[in-house]
Amino acid sequence: xxxxxxxxxxxxxxxxxxxxxxxxxxxxxxxxLGRTMAQRAAEHFTARRDAGAKIVLLAASPLDRAQETAxxxxxxxxxxxxxxxxxxxxxxxxxxxxxxxxxxxxxxxxPYLVNPLRPSWGESYSAQVERMMEAVRTQRxxxxxxxxxxxxxxxxxxxxxxxxxxRAAEGKPLWHDPRRRECTLTSVTSLVFEGNRLxxxxxxxxxxxxxxxxxxIPGA
Length: 220
Hints:
Oligomer: single chain
Order of helices and strands: EHEHEHHEHEE
């Protein structure tokens, strides 16, 4: 059975001085630091290619921050960016709001907080995993058609959908504490397949040394 790898790359830091939970809103672009992170991700995948990896496909969520994160990798590897709508950010009742902690004290939001295991304030974790894995399988198969056995694809997306997809891949419950997600800015979560069987999950942080100065809002 042919081996294939799909790398789930989270976007870089976003310019967001008002600390808005921006969700699927347009016009939230990478900050200067975010662009540095995107370049770091490009260097990571370039080094991987130079070491012999067959990275043949690059896809990104339609949101600005994902497309901008993908751009340096596209330039470095000579790949076109395929827009993949199934890896978009999750829907969220609190989208567009800031100071989420204080928002939780308002009674009008309480009906959305009744089931944190689903979660009741947005798209269910299971629905996110379903659409993410559909995209992963589609782009994995496309990469195999292009590059043959050992082909690799990079999908640029968002923290929560990537994180719950990883938890599903590792056989863990999808509910979790958002503060404990291991999916930092421009981190790479890699799913390794043998045929249709998922055989390994790997995690790397190309921008680890840049994270201390970065803004990072859970769910963004």
